[in-house]
Amino acid sequence: MRSVKRATVYLESTLHRALRLKAADTEQSVSELVNAAVRYSLLEDAEDLEAFETRARQPNLNFETFVRDLKRRGKL
Fold first, then answer.
1. Which of these, 44, 51, 16, lies nearest to 8 by C-alpha position?
2. Number of domains present in the structure of the chain
3. Exposed e or buried b for every residue in 9-48, given b needs 16+ CB within 10 A?
4. Cα dist. 42→33, 34, 46, 65, 74 in Å?
5. Does 28 reside within a domain?
6. Is residue 2 one of the residues assigned to a domain?
7. Contact at 8 Å (CB) between 76 and 70?
8. What was the pLDDT predicted at 23?
9. Which residues contact 8 (CB under 8 A, 6 or more apart)?
10. Is the pLDDT reported for residue 15 higher than 70?
11. Per residue in 30-74, pLDDT tens?
12. Which residues contact 58 (CB under 8 A, 6 or more apart)?
């Protein structure tokens, strides 16, 4: 069993209503839905950080050089 911590979260009334309705519709608790949403958001952040790390190793491309190259190749 996972360790759980209690937290107080203040939601806009419309979000709270939507969350309660979704919980009832999916037969999940509000806590389960909130945990899943936070987990999903953190996973997106982790993927972004990984992409930034990968791109950090790529060479920098000067914007002016890039535009001149596009023009030279007839793309502009």
1. 16
2. 1
3. eeeeeeeeeeeeeebeeeeeeeeeebeeeeeeeeeeeeee
4. 14, 12, 6, 37, 43
5. yes
6. no
7. yes
8. 98
9. none
10. yes
11. 999 999 999 999 999 999 999 888 888 888 889 999 999 999 999
12. none
Residue 42: in which H helix or E strand, if any? helix 30-56
- Tokens (6 digits) for 29: 């608790």
Q: Give the domain range for residue 45.
A: 13-72
Q: What is the dihedral of CA 29, 9, 16, 28, to 10 degrees?
A: -10
Beta strands in 1-76 (DSSP E): none
pLDDT of residue 1: 59
Please check whether residue 6 lies inside any domain of the structure: no
Please say whether the beta carbons of 22 and 33 come within 8 A: yes
- For residues 2-15, give the mean pLDDT: 94
Instruction: Note whether residue 21 is domain-resident.
Output: yes
